[in-house]
Amino acid sequence: MYTVRQLQQIKLLGDSQRLAILRRLMDHPATLSQLGEHFSETPAHIRHHLKALESAGLVALAAVRPVRGFLEKYYRATERAYLIQVAVFPEAAEAHRPLVIGSNDPALQKVLGGEGSPCVFLNLDSLEGLARMREGICAMATIHLLDAASGEYNHPFVRHFFPGEEMALVRLFHREQGLVVRGGNPLGILQIEDLARPGIRLVNRESGAGTRVWLDQALRARGISKDMVDGYQDEVHSHDEVARVVAAGKADVGIGLPESARQSGLAFIPLFDEPYDLVLPQKIYSDPETARFFERLSSGDFQQRVEGFAGYHGLQRRGQVDLVS
User: Fold this and answer.
1) In whole angstroms, what is the distance from residue 101 CA to residue 306 CA?
2) Matching CATH topology for 4-77 and 93-325?
3) Residues 132, 138: contact at Cβ < 8 Å?
């Protein structure tokens, strides 16, 4: 839930002139006259925007100095950097549904994310989901994160983000991931080492995605530098996007799901199997108001529909929960 001040800041920075003024004052303090000269605007025009930024707590008076017989006010930004996030939620009538932030999974979205869904999904990535839950922005997070040191999925990351807190990990399912390539695999891409071959271009997932975490660990284990992989810096934000980029011929390979490959008419070479978990505080898991959500997850209809997608198995059963603290 945003405070009135946060909503005011988001609204103000939607104006490009105010955003430009704020960025200028993040660099160094300035007066109305100096800002007016920089932006080719009158001091009165700058004053209007500056007062709005000041009332929102983004700008403050830094100093008052005599300049040519007059007292000039120097303003500065209140911080050296800002993180402004915008999330649009359903109408108030739907506000009782829990917000789930985290890893993208197209099957889960298609089965559980439509009209009448018991939750609201916001796809970012696994690490973002844990970070936003720690900040209290969402009730739950979806993750698939491999810890290189222990070889364990998900638990080490939950312990790191929520030390000493009682958390529940609900195993939703296992899913397969692998190389998504053009139909017939004309370039003969069969293993991670092939990503370093000349003439092979990768489409990557964003930093923080569980798939990216796995790939980075796989490259390190094989002594392959990121600089050796053409396209490593080319990022997309979902498994379906990976498949679309490969299908369009803009990349030769990506790491993704067999269902995404199938729907885009692509070939799939399996690499690994991973658990996909839902993380939430134990007190929320035990709350009777979330019962509808978990009843839906453990229903035969949910399991049957997810099993209809390629590469999914070991679906959640009621009570398949790990407690982490």
Assistant:
1) 20
2) no
3) yes
Side-chain half-sphere exposure of 43, counting CA atoms within 13 A: 7
Max Cα separation, the chain?
81
How many whole angstroms separate alpha carbon 179 and alpha carbon 190?
8
pLDDT attached to residue 220: 97
Would you list the domain boundaries of the chain? 4-77, 93-325
Strands 70-77 and 321-324: unpaired
- Of the two residues 286 and 205, the one the predictor is more confident about is 205
SS3 for 269?
A: strand
Contact of 100 with 122, CB cutoff 8 Å: yes
- pTM above 0.90? no
Helix (H, G, I), strand (E, B) or coil at 31: coil
- Tell me which residue of 107, 110, 89 sits closest to 99, measured CA to CA: 89
In this structure, what token pair is assigned to residue 144? 């698939």
pLDDT computed for residue 81 by the predictor: 75
Does the pLDDT at position 154 exceed 70? yes
Closest to 49 (Cα-Cα) out of 37, 38, 36, 34: 36
Q: 4-77: what fold?
A: Arc Repressor Mutant, subunit A (1.10.10)
Average pLDDT of the residues in 193-206:
97
CATH of domain 93-325: 3.40.190.290
What does the block give as tokens for 302?
A: 């949910």
- Per-residue pLDDT, 321: 73
* pLDDT, mean of residues 129-148: 92
State residue 203 phi and psi, 5-degree precision: -110, 125
CA distance 32 to 71: 12
How would DSSP label each residue in 114-148?
STT-SSEEEE--HHHHHHHHHTTS-SEEEE--B-T
82: Cβ contacts below 8 Å, ≥ 6 apart? 9, 22, 58
Q: Which pLDDT value is given to residue 3?
A: 63
Q: How far apart are alpha carbons 313 and 307 in whole angstroms?
A: 6
Q: Can you give the pLDDT at residue 297?
A: 80
Radius of gyration (C-alpha) of the chain in whole angstroms = 25
Helix (H, G, I), strand (E, B) or coil at 37: helix
